[in-house]
Structures are given as structure tokens and as C-alpha cells.
């Protein structure tokens, strides 16, 4: 099944359909329920990346306004809902320079989105999104696209309005310089650490020294042929939309075949006698 269902409610909304498909043994495209839950919560994803020794900006999660005065991160800061996509909740006000502004933004986000707020140190460098194909050891970067804001865009932030009006506010460039190649390399590492599969995107932004940091993972990336970042990357690469869809199906098919082979071998082992296991003949 070609699964692109994002669900409607809750922190597990993207995992609901894949969980049902798992229960009925129906193969499907894209990542499994666990990965979709982990990556939807940006703070959990950052914790996994951080634990693997990979770069992501220092952060805290605000669940109540009383926690705001205890934030002790280097300024400026950046705030956004912890479980939204497509830039929801990100505006020109998301870049924060004072405690008063932080409290005001957090109050608005907590009230509007009814979920915690991710607050992290603002990264002033270039912004990239990397298209990825494959699962596990086969994962590789398709291409690196830089997000460059025009003069009429919300400054310094890839906001919801900038994304919705991208034709007028954003330049998308395919890049292959040293910093972009590093973004591609670490994006593959992020992809593997999080357990993503088939196809998707990793979003990154560099620090002042030009070192790409993890922003978030998109294992269920948008597939609008003209408006979504992944198809835009493929278009810049000269890859037709039909070929992108075919590549997704081919990756899923190969993954399912490998899984079935492993299950069959495991099933065969379980039918063997205890003596076989004792003698170590497996």
C-alpha cells in the first residue's frame, strides 16, 4: 500500500494507519509507526540525534509558562510547536531576543496549538533540506537544496507564510559546495539513527562556523509535484515526478522482500530441534 496518511489528532497521528497495516500484515511505503511517532516530536528526534553524538542546537521543551524563566540557552532563541509540520506556528516572531518576547511567543503557541513548545538556540547559517532514498545501509542522499529567502519574505526564518507563498518569497537552489556536501553526509547519518526508510527529507541549518545541524526529519515528506520540497529537489536534479514515485515503490518493495526473507529464515530456525541450537549449527 502507498501510505501517505498523516492522521488528524495526537502525537501518534502519523503512525495510526501504519500501525493498522502492521496489524493486518499489509506492506506499505515509508517509515514504521515508531519512527513516525519519534520524528513527529521534534524534541524526541533531537534527543536521539544528540545521543548519537551528532550536531543539533541546544534546546528545551516548554510545557507551561512557569518554565519560561528557567530557560538558560544562548541568545537569540527560536521557538516552534514541538509536533507540527509545514512550518505551522513559525512566523517572523519565532526568532526571539528577550525573556519578555519568549514568554509572549510561548504563551501564544501553547494556547494556539495545545502542545509543548520547542525552544532552541537560533542557528544563523545557511538552511538546507536533503532528499534521501533508501533504508539502513542503502540510504543515500538524492540531493541538497538550499532555502534562500527573498527580500519580501519573513526575514531569517522559513516560516509558514514563506512556505505557502514560496513562489514569491523563496529561491530553491541545488547546491554542491563543501558545506552542502557535509549537510548531505550528516543527513544520511541522521536518517539512519532515526530509523527512517524508503524516502524522505532531513532539514538542517548551519551554525556561525558553517557546521550543519539537525533541525527535523520528514519521513513522510509531502509529495505535491510542484509545491513540496522533495519533488522540488527531484525537479532540480532532472528527475521526473513519475520516477520519484517509482523509486519510492521500488525501495519499499526491496525492503519488504528482505524482511520476508529474514522472517522465513527465522521461522525455519524455530522449527529446528533444541539440540540443533545447543550444538550451534545455525
How is the topology of this model organized?
Layout lengths: L15 H8 L9 H8 L1 H10 L7 E4 L14 E5 L13 E2 L2 H15 L3 E5 L5 E7 L6 E10 L10 H5 L1 H4 E5 L3 H17 L4 E8 L5 E7 L10 H9 L3 H30 L3 H6 L3
Antiparallel strand pairs: 1-4, 2-3, 2-4, 5-6, 5-8, 6-7, 8-9
Strand line-up across the major sheet: 7-6-5-8-9
Strand element count? 9
Spell out the helices and strands N to C: HHHEEEHEEEHHEHEEHHH
- How would you characterize the largest beta sheet? 5 strands, antiparallel
Q: N-to-C terminal Cα separation, in Å?
A: 34 Å
**Percentage of residues in strands:** 15-25%
Structural class comes to: alpha+beta
Taking all Cα atoms into account, the compactness measure Rg is 21 Å
Report the helical percentage. 25-40%
* Quaternary structure state of the chains depicted: single chain
The chain-level mean pLDDT equals 93
Low-confidence blocks of residues: 276-282
Our count of helices gives 10
Shape: globular
Amino acid at each position: 500500500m502507498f501510505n501517505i496518511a498523516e492522521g488528524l489528532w495526537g502525537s501518534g497521528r502519523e503512525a495510526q494507519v501504519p500501525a493498522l497495516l502492521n496489524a493486518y500484515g499489509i506492506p506499505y511505503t515509508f517509515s514504521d509507526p515508531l519512527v513516525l511517532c519519534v520524528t513527529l516530536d521534534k524534541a524526541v528526534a533531537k534527543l536521539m540525534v544528540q545521543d548519537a553524538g551528532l550536531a543539533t542546537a541546544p534546546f528545551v521543551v516548554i510545557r507551561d509558562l512557569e518554565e519560561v524563566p528557567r530557560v538558560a540557552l544562548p541568545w537569540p532563541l527560536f521557538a516552534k510547536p514541538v509536533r507540527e509540520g509545514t512550518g505551522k506556528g513559525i512566523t517572523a516572531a519565532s526568532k526571539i531576543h528577550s525573556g519578555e518576547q519568549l514568554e509572549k511567543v510561548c504563551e501564544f503557541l501553547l494556547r494556539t496549538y495545545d502542545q509543548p513548545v520547542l525552544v532552541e538556540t537560533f542557528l544563523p547559517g545557511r538552511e538546507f533540506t536533503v532528499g534521501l532514498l533508501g533504508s539502513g545501509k542503502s540510504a543515500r542522499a538524492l540531493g541538497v537544496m538550499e532555502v534562500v529567502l527573498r527580500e519580501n519574505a519573513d526575514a531569517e526564518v522559513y516560516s509558514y507564510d514563506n512556505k505557502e507563498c514560496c513562489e514569491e518569497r523563496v529561491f530553491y537552489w541545488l547546491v554542491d559546495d563543501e558545506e552542502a556536501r557535509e549537510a548531505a553526509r550528516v543527513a544520511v547519518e541522521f536518517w539512519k539513527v532515526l530509523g527512517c526508510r524508503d524516502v524522505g527529507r532531513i532539514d538542517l541549518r548551519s551554525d556561525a562556523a558553517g557546521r550543519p545541524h539537525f533541525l527535523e526529519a520528514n519521513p513522510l515528506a509531502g509529495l505535491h509535484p510542484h509545491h513540496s520540497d522533495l519533488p522540488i529537489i527531484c525537479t532540480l536534479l532532472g528527475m521526473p515526478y513519475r520516477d520519484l514515485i517509482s523509486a519510492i515503490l521500488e525501495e519499499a518493495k526491496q525492503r519488504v522482500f528482505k524482511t520476508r526473507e529474514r522472517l522465513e529464515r527465522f521461522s525455519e530456525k524455530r522449527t529446528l530441534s533444541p539440540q540443533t541450537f545447543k550444538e550451534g549449527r545455525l
